[in-house]
Amino acid sequence: MKRSLHRIAPLALAGFVLAEPALAQEAAPAAAEAVGGGTAYIFNTLLFLIGGFLVMWMAAGFAMLEAGLVRSKNVSVQCLKNIGLYAIAGLMFWVIGYSIAYPGFEGGYFGIANFPYAMQGVGEADTGTGYSVASDWFFQMVFCATTASIVSGTVAERVKLVPFFVFVTILTGFIYPVIVSWEWGAGWLDAMGFSDFAGSTLVHSTGGWAALMGALIIGPRLGRYAKDGKMAVFPGSSIPLATLGTFILWLGWFGFNGASQLAMGTVGDVSDVSKIFVNTNMAACAGVVVAIIFTQLRYGKADTTMALNGALAGLVAITAEPLTPNVGMAIIIGGIGGALPVIFVPILDKLKIDDVVGAIPVHLMAGIWGTLAVPLTNTEVPFVAQITGVAATGIFVSIVSALVWFALKATIGLRPSEAEEMAGLDLGETGIEAYPEFTRTT
After folding, report:
1. Which end of the chain is more exposed for a tag (fewer CB within 10 A), N or C?
2. pTM exceeds 0.85 for this model
């Protein structure tokens, strides 16, 4: 079973063994009939569908968060990037991404199974798998789109639309699926005991590394960092919109983590999903509180944007293992995650790495922390495997992403002209301003 077979042990005890969906897993015998004439099949499928549309709703959260944190003159293009990247991720994961992510061979580094997946009849109801193949594919696809959303916020306000979409195509069709195959696809990281329950590294750090390479190669926004060392502050267009986006993401995370249990056919599974919900929520709460306290102590004022990122960093941190911690440990893990944006945003600015929404501290740094924290509560996971997974993901994603960004820079170009950037990408890239009567020009 992708995302680790040990998670569905309760089903095995009940005499109902889940297997990989068609094309990615081996079929299990006598599936639905073993438990109440397909009852487990129905509930497992329902979990995937509910989790899937909650994670899909996170796309709206990313769009609103980014729309609120960019300047008014760039809101329209940021909304277009977010709906565009979601659509591209869906198409690429359907055509090739799924076939790379879940090749169905043990301990491998790379493979393609049953390509193209589009030809395989995703809508078939095969009770032998333990859940609808279509529901599983949909749930996996929305995770792919989440990875691309992370990149969008970091490189906002100074990258053209076409090269960004080209990068998203490669990220969702190749880079992300390869990383996923190493663990959730029963690849080499899974074989050495690496564990990432819902994607602190596989999803969030992957997006974070890709975003970091983009920020380095594209460069900062015009006027952000002066030669004398001073930094210009570019206020976002709408704190209420960014706050709404954060709450939407928080809500979607219950699907992100909860449905990663991958089964709801037994009392034990439902109990585990409930515990995951609680731990996920409490980690986010701790992240907010810690961020507020840290900014109050450091600056004498609480920073709203840091509180928002504190919530998200807490969520990212608990995502690697939301089941085994008790509530107290979930609070500690999330609280440390919430401190990371407060610590690393100023460091990035000193290094002149322009991360518009703070996605690198939130998704990359908190993702690393959450992954390394897994052995603290899950003693079956070797710490060396977690370090290896973090390092391997960073090396692969950074190298491939950098090559793609450099190739785009050398061919079609990454940045608009200085005049277009100063005027705002809404005009230059879409021709439609989000706030035509209130657009700033600085």
Report:
1. C
2. yes
